Known about the structure:
Elements: H1 2-21, E1 28-29, H2 31-37, H3 48-58, E2 66-67, H4 68-88, H5 98-107, H6 114-124, H7 134-151, H8 166-175
Antiparallel strand pairs: 1-2
Amino acid sequence: MSRQRSRSKSNCDLRQWFDKVDRSETGRLNAVELQEALMNNDYTKFDMHVIIAMIDMFDDDKTKEINFEEFQKIWAFLGNWREVFNQFDVDNGGAIDAEELTAAIRQLGYNLSRQFINVLMRKFDFSGDGFLQFDGFVMVLIKIRQLTAAFQPFDKMQNGTAHFTYEEFLTVVLQNT
């Protein structure tokens, strides 16, 4: 009973937060409002690229805005990934370096080279300080998931190799970036 009560309280708090950032009072959050709602560990706003990716993933009714039910899904999704992020933020600095990202990616079942980890770090280190904030980490996970799903149909032997025509490659890249 107390567990259900605390879950309701949490849901009530989430609703209050949603309503607070819903400045347009439409019952939906646009990208700017959603960005207001989501913070990194250092209290900076999420990068707008991550916000747009989140809207693309969770906007079930395709309005380019997030209603409360969709917001709850985003909040749960981010809560799960924040636990993983915090587990690998070994020094509790609120950001992860390339070594910590490598460990996280490996635990998630991906065996990626250090060179590729460096590419991810450069691409998603939105502050340019050599570390990924939580939003950069989330974007890494979103992109790896999207690109893996796009790659799998071409990996006929399921061994991590694929044969693409140049046009197929371009199509996969453009549909997933």
